[in-house]
Structure formats: C-alpha cells, structure tokens
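Priority: medium. Attachment 1 of 2:
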C-alpha cells in the first residue's frame, strides 16, 4: 500500500508543474542581420524583442493558460533564395506567426512558403504591391506600398519642387524597380519628363559611368530606387562629378545611416525622400518608444522597429481575441483587427494593406532631417 501511495504521489508531483506550465508562443523573424542592410534588420529584430518583453511582462493568458512569447530570429541576408530557406526553417520550427521580411525581394517569395503552411505573416517594411496582391490570405503589412511612396514623391517633385526633367536609377530588386516604376508613373502624370532610366545592382559601389551619362542629359533631379548602402556612395559621386541636382528616393534612402554613408555630400536640400508613417516624434507613442528602445538596446531607432513592435502587438491581440495561438484560429481576428499602436491606428483592408496609409516627405539640412509634408 505504501508503495502504491508513493507511486501516486510521484505521479501527481510530475503532473503538477505541467498543469501550471506556460504555453510557448513562437514568433518568427526574418530580416537581414548581415550584409549592407543589417542595420535595418537589427532594428526590426529589436522592435520585435521589445514587444515580446512587454507581452511577457503583461501576464497574458490564452486558452486558459499563461503564455510566454519567444522570438526565433533568422538572417535572410536580403537574398531571395535565403529568404525562402529561412521561411521553411521557421515553418519547420512550428512558429505561430511571422514578422518579416524587410526587403520586398525576400518578402514576396517567402510569403508563399508561409501561405502554404497557413502561417500569418506581417511585414514591417516590404512595400512592393505584389506582396499583398498574390491572393494569400496570410499576408499583411503595416507600411504603405510603392505606389504610395514612389507615387507621392513623384508628384511632390513636380508640383512642389517644380522639377521637370528626371533621371531614374534602380537597383533591379523588387523594391527598387517597384518604387522607381511608381515614381516615373506619377511624375509623368504630373507633367514631368523622364530623360533617362539607368540600372545598377544592390551590391554596386561605383556609379560614375551611370552618373557621367546622366550629367549629359541635363536633368533637374535624380531618383534612386534602392537602399542607403548604395544611395550614400551615389550622393558622394554626384558631388565628385559636379552634379548639382537633388537626389530623390523613397524610404530606402531616408534613414539615419544615409547621413553617415553620404557624409558631406548631403548639404541643404540635396536629398528628398518619402518614408512610411510620420516622424518618430510625431507618432502617438514615438517619444516613449524611442527612449525605451535606447535604454533597452543602447541604439537609436533606424526606421522600422516601431512598425515591427506594432506588428507583434496586433498579432498577439488577434491571438488573445481568438483565445487561441493556432494560426488558423486567430487569422480571422487579424483580418478585422483595429489597433492603436506606437505608429498610429492599424486596420487592414481585404488585401492585407493598411486601410489608411500615411507617409512623410523629408529633406535634409546636412545631418538634420526635416519633415516637410505628411500625405495620406
């Protein structure tokens, strides 16, 4: 009898911790953590981690059990092939949702992997319209699209800056080509002229041949569809060659890193760019987020960490409302979510895009960035 009692007590002791155990919710993160876009990827990863810290402090329960959120972070190196590989790795790890990717060129192919697995994906940065127009019910984004970013800077360049004749360069990525196409379309509709379109690569560093050709075209402005890793050297070489026209671009060249990369080539009103949302200090929770982010990671916000933070929070909110962390159970709640976040109010349309996207146009006065227009 004593032996049986001992076995029963041991069994109860073994079961008890399990009954009170936390459920682990795995949030996948796909972004470049190496290479020229690593500063953006780390910014996204840190935004996700800050949200997870807050969720774990909140004591959330789902399905009657306390939950603990964990991030599984993978480096896609801004490479489409690697992007699909890490997407499959996240699926194999049985993540409950994904925040990512950064580049459109990785986000688009990865989205099919997540769609096939039925795992919701929210990109905090990818802007190519194709991402949410493939018919995947699992794809969402919390930033505007290229037709908004590229289109608005195109219209602004003609209507407000009074520029008429443009050269366009893009880096042949899904993002660079997409935003350049939209710039061209909007600039032409506003009465502008495209004198020449040139192409480079997203690993290029020498643009002198392209710029020499553009210099002879006598343009009023140059639009670059690409990232700051190339945009900075491009501006330096414009200065070297005596090309005294503004450089225009979208969010890829609107970062604090652009100032470091371009150096003294950024004078006063030499650069105009469009970026998602409003300035960090104008976001509803921007100043608090900035200070908490700096204290937690010892780094300044680049661009996308507030959007990554909000993406995690809206995903967790959908899980809470569905009372389930199962992707298929909470996906309907994600579609109809309404969330007032750090960046503003987030609601998705039928495609998974923002119902009311906002963007800001900036110029630079040396190292200081100035918001000059907020557009919707």
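Attachment 2 of 2:
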């Amino acid at each position: 009898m004593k032996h049986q009692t001992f076995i029963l007590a041991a069994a109860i002791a073994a079961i008890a911790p399990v009954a009170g155990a936390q459920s682990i919710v795995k949030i996948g993160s796909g972004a470049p953590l190496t290479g020229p876009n690593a500063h953006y990827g780390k910014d996204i990863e840190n935004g996700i981690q800050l949200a997870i810290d807050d969720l774990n402090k909140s004591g959330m329960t789902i399905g009657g059990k306390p939950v603990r959120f964990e991030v599984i972070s993978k480096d896609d190196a801004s490479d489409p092939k690697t992007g699909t590989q890490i997407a499959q790795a996240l699926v194999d790890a049985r993540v409950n949702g994904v925040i990512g990717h950064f580049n459109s060129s990785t986000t688009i192919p990865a989205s099919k992997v997540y769609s096939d697995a039925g795992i919701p994906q929210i990109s905090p940065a990818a802007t190519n319209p194709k991402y949410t127009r493939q018919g995947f019910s699992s794809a969402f984004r919390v930033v505007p699209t290229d037709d908004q970013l590229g289109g608005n800077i195109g219209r602004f360049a003609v209507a407000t800056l009074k520029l008429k004749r443009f050269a366009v360069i893009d880096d042949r990525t899904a993002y660079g080509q997409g935003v350049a196409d939209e710039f061209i379309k909007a600039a032409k509709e506003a009465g502008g002229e495209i004198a020449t379109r040139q192409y480079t690569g997203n690993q290029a560093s020498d643009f002198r041949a392209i710029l020499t050709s553009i210099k002879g075209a006598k343009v009023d402005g140059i639009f670059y569809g690409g990232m700051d890793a190339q945009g900075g050297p491009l501006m330096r070489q414009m200065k070297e060659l005596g090309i005294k026209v503004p450089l225009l671009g979208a969010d890829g060249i609107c970062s604090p890193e652009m100032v470091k990369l371009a150096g003294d080539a950024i004078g006063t009103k030499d650069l105009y760019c469009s970026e998602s949302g409003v300035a960090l200090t104008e976001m509803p929770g921007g100043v608090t987020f900035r200070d908490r982010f700096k204290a937690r990671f010892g780094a300044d916000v680049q661009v996308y960490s507030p959007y990554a933070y909000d993406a995690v929070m809206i995903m967790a909110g959908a899980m809470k409302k569905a009372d389930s962390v199962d992707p298929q159970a909470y996906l309907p709640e994600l579609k109809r979510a309404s969330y007032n976040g750090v960046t503003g109010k987030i609601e998705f349309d039928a495609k998974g895009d923002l119902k009311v996207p906002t963007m800001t146009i900036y110029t630079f006065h040396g190292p200081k960035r100035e918001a000059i227009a907020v557009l919707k």
